[in-house]
């Protein structure tokens, strides 16, 4: 049994006339009659009969007609789904992101992608840069929103000295350059200032990124503090930005975070720019050029 036989059968059933059905199907009447006869032979049932010179459908034909229409509908849907998948309109995008991307870059990129491809399934999860690069290399994710370089040294004019974190063979594109900002509890004496120098935080207790959750971020920020003349006194550590802000709000210390910062109540916590000549943190989209996913291709086109 072939799909073309089913289509021919349905048209004959709709017309109840082999001649008119043959015209619709652009076939000769003998060719169409042979298709119906072959279908009846394959099924082992009679689909049509002549009763008092009238062309009628048998009970078996009536039952088969409903199923044939359903089979054809599903076959057409399968074809359209395959074509749409090839175009990247269907499928899954496996994306991982660093926490500091969640307040600007991530919603901006995903919002645009969702509007363009609303039926693509988004598999999203927060992950460190190191884990993302390993997953990209192993083919476990399609795209990473990460910080492949860590700024070091001083001076925006000279540009950041970088520590490459991407595995060989991965491609990346910078989508943002973000500053380091100070986080203070509301009412802190330094909130009266619009911009601060790192050295002004030398005597403060700190709430810091925990080193296991992001050793490069942790070590780089500590390095900036030491370059400013002090080693930060870390009183509390946390693995995520929201917890750090909660602890600062509670008065357990000040902090330094990579921007953009999350929205907050200014009566609870205050963000301040730093006047130190610090290089920015690059945020990049990374992927494997060996990944042939059509959905990834659409995401990169949109990017």
UniProtKB/TrEMBL annotation:
GO terms for molecular function: DNA binding; DNA-binding transcription factor activity. CDD domains: PBP2_LTTR_aromatics_like. InterPro entries: LysR_HTH_N, LysR_subst-bd, WH-like_DNA-bd_sf, WH_DNA-bd_sf. PROSITE patterns: HTH_LYSR (PS50931). Keywords: DNA-binding, Transcription, Transcription regulation. It comes from the Bacteria. This is LysR family transcriptional regulator. SUPFAM superfamilies: Periplasmic binding protein-like II, Winged helix' DNA-binding domain. It comes from Kribbella sp. HUAS MG21. It holds the Pfam family LysR_substrate. Residues 1-58 form the HTH lysR-type domain. GO terms for cellular component: protein-DNA complex. Belongs to the LysR transcriptional regulatory family.
């Amino acid at each position: 049994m072939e799909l073309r036989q089913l289509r021919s059968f349905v048209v004959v059933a709709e017309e109840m006339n082999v001649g008119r059905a043959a015209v619709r199907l652009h076939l000769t009447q003998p060719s169409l009659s042979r298709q119906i006869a072959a279908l009846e032979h394959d099924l082992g049932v009679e689909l049509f009969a002549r009763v008092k010179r009238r062309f009628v459908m048998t009970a078996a034909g009536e039952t088969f007609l409903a199923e044939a229409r359903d089979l054809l509908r599903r076959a057409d849907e399968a074809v359209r789904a395959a074509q749409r998948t090839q175009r990247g309109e269907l499928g899954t995008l496996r994306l991982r992101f660093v926490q500091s991307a969640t307040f600007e870059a991530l919603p901006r990129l995903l919002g645009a992608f969702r509007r363009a491809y609303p039926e693509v399934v988004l598999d999203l999860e927060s992950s460190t840069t190191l884990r993302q690069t390993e997953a990209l290399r192993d083919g476990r994710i399609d795209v990473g929103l990460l910080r492949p370089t860590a700024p070091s040294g001083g001076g925006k004019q000279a540009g950041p000295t970088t520590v490459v974190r991407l595995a060989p063979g991965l491609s990346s594109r910078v989508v943002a350059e973000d500053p380091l900002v100070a986080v203070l509890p509301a009412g802190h004496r330094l909130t009266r200032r619009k911009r601060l120098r790192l050295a002004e935080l030398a005597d403060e207790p700190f709430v810091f990124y925990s080193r296991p959750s992001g050793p490069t971020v942790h070590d780089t920020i500590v390095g900036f503090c030491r370059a400013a003349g002090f080693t930060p006194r870390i009183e509390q550590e946390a693995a995520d930005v929201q917890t750090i802000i909660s602890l600062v709000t509670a008065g357990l210390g000040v902090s330094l975070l990579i921007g953009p910062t999350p929205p907050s109540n200014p009566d609870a916590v205050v963000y301040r720019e730093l006047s130190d000549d610090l290089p920015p943190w690059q945020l990049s989209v990374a992927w494997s050029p060996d990944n042939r996913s059509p959905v990834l291709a659409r995401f990169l086109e949109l990017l």
